[in-house]
Design a protein that fits this description.
With about 375 residues, this protein is an alpha/beta fold. α2 links the parallel β2 and β3. α1 crosses α2, α5 packs across α9 and α6 packs across α9. It starts with a strand and ends with a strand.
């Protein structure tokens, strides 16, 4: 039998890089991953590139620059979950015996300001029914009503993640903040302040997957799944604005998480470290519940206990999360895989989670897609 191993990882820092193209950033990450895996530019049989804003044949441009074309190159778009979708397709090809070594990379050079997406019709954007701070605020308001979350809890998420980001040289924001400073930042849409929202930015990440013996001692891909929203529930908000008051419809995150836990033969209690979607502070807390890290309604309690802080029983976003790193969509999920691989290798330096053996990565793209990845050592 064979398993899928994370053979190599690479990362271009996340931030803003004037004068550097998205292709150049992709090249940096891919080169690092190939070198880390000990694979030359002809040593992989296929490539999958996660991206949303990089244009036609974006993955081809990166590999053409490296002189590494000739095999199948597939661009994959699933919003913030693009890298997770690409990883799932690559893992499936290895499991099916089609390939032994596959390159997966993601990259983005995001426009500044609020993210726009052709997923939403113009009338939806004008009505606020899109991936905007107003919509995120509705989600936060519902979470506050149902889970006892307060503005201070939202600020505490930012404080936690920014503190972690101080130790991440690849993050965009590397300065610790206080609850008071977060709450003093400009109110964008009640209850979300400016510092509670992540910054769309630029960067790239790459992973080399390789078929390996099940008994191998490297970092293995234990499970990966991509799921879409069920009818009637987009962006997982389920607020009156989306036509739902009392829905009971499982979120895409819950669907993806359940499928991945089943594939891996593991559950939330087996996890040692987690990287999850924190597009805004409320999104992190909601993810706790949707992934089963705590019972529904207990997100605030989990945060208050300190369980998700460094040194807690389940550190969340030791990289600093999107609130520290920013988010280049196509690189987001694979950036998590890079971080979690470092954690399982014991190579995370001052942000190392002691004894980490099982890790989970989670991204949500437009609310219509969710990817969950479980790595195991």
């Amino acid at each position: 039998m064979t398993a899928v191993e994370i053979a190599g990882i690479g990362l271009h820092p996340f931030g803003r890089f004037e004068g550097k193209t998205v292709t150049e950033m992709g090249v940096v990450a891919v080169r690092q991953a190939l070198d880390d895996a000990g694979v030359d530019r002809r040593g992989f049989q296929a490539a999958f590139c996660g991206t949303a804003y990089s244009g036609v044949a974006a993955g081809h441009r990166v590999l053409d620059t490296l002189g590494a074309t000739g095999g199948p190159i597939v661009d994959v778009e699933a919003g913030c979950a693009s890298g997770g979708a690409a990883l799932m397709m690559a893992a499936g090809a290895i499991a099916a015996g089609e390939c032994d070594v596959i390159l997966v990379f993601g990259m983005e050079k995001m426009p500044k300001g609020i993210i726009r997406s052709s997923f939403f019709a113009p009338w939806q954007e004008e009505a606020g029914l899109a991936a905007t701070p107003a919509y995120f605020a509705l989600r936060a308001q519902r979470l506050m009503r149902e889970s006892g979350v307060t503005g201070e809890h939202l600020a505490e998420v930012v404080v936690k993640n920014r503190a972690n980001g101080v130790n991440n040289p690849d993050a965009m924001f590397r300065k610790a903040v206080t609850v008071e400073e977060v709450l003093a930042s400009r109110l964008v849409c009640d209850p979300l302040h400016l510092w509670m929202l992540c910054s769309p930015n630029e960067g790239a990440a790459a992973v080399v997957l390789r078929a390996a013996p099940v008994s191998g001692k490297g970092v293995r891909l234990a499970g990966v799944a991509l799921r879409s929203h069920l009818p009637g529930n987009v962006l997982s908000e389920a607020t009156p604005m989306s036509g739902l008051v009392d829905d009971g419809i499982p979120a895409a995150t819950t669907l993806a998480g359940s499928a991945t836990f089943k594939e891996a033969g593991l559950g939330p209690s087996d996890l040692d470290v987690v990287e999850l979607q924190d597009t805004d502070a409320a999104r992190e807390l909601l993810s706790y519940e949707e992934l089963g890290l705590c019972p529904a309604g207990d997100a605030a309690k989990l945060l208050e206990e300190g369980a998700t802080r460094m040194g807690g029983r389940l550190p969340v976003n030791p990289s600093g999360g999107l609130l520290s790193k920013g988010e280049p969509l196509g690189a987001s999920a694979l950036g998590q895989v890079v971080e979690l691989t470092r954690q399982l290798r014991g190579d995370a330096g001052p942000r190392q989670v002691d004894g980490a053996r099982v890790a989970l990565g989670h991204t949500v793209g437009r609310g219509a897609n969710a990817s969950v990845v479980i790595l195991k050592r």
